Amino acid sequence: MKITKYAQSCILIETQKTKILIDPGIININEETIKEWMNPDYIFVTHKHSDHFDEASVEKIISQKTKIYSTNETSRAYQKLSFLIIKEGNKIDLGKIKVEIVKGLHGHHALFKEENIIHEEVGYILEIEGKKIYHPGDTISFPNDYNCDIIFTPFNNHGVCMSPFEAALFAKHTNASLVIPIHYDNTRLPGDINKFKEELEKNQLNYKFLKIGESIEV
Length: 218
Hints:
5 helices
């Protein structure tokens, strides 16, 4: 399978027959991005913030086959599109692909206005081709027993998700064999890349920073 990282928290996963887009947000979208996102089979959205879901772009890329999964809160925020509503604890059977809906706990700071506060966030653990792939969304750290092979780990230095220290420990706890960092490349809320590398290496974690639009085969 091929994994491609886009700005902030957006991930595209492609197998021979299936195209999955996670958190297609508004940051750094251009014509090439839209072209690469076209005709996904499934879109998974962790929460309602526009840096994780850009309604205008999604309207351009979806086809009749596309299914969009997210929370009730996200669905209420984007009423032009039809969502399949999920919540923590749900499991989705997509044939050869299985998806577990897990807890997400969005960070908060005092500059958030009421419309920016997240009451419903989820993460996704996708089982694809024998690998478990975990996208936690903009979560802060919380107790869990999740295990995965690949984790997209959100970090920055501004409270909405984990610090480098917390993010490395969170990733280590999942026993992931590969950590792919996300969220740090939002220029308004940048993460300390060197500090996160230091924490990942301190915890003996295998990691790969992907540039926007860069892909790897796993």
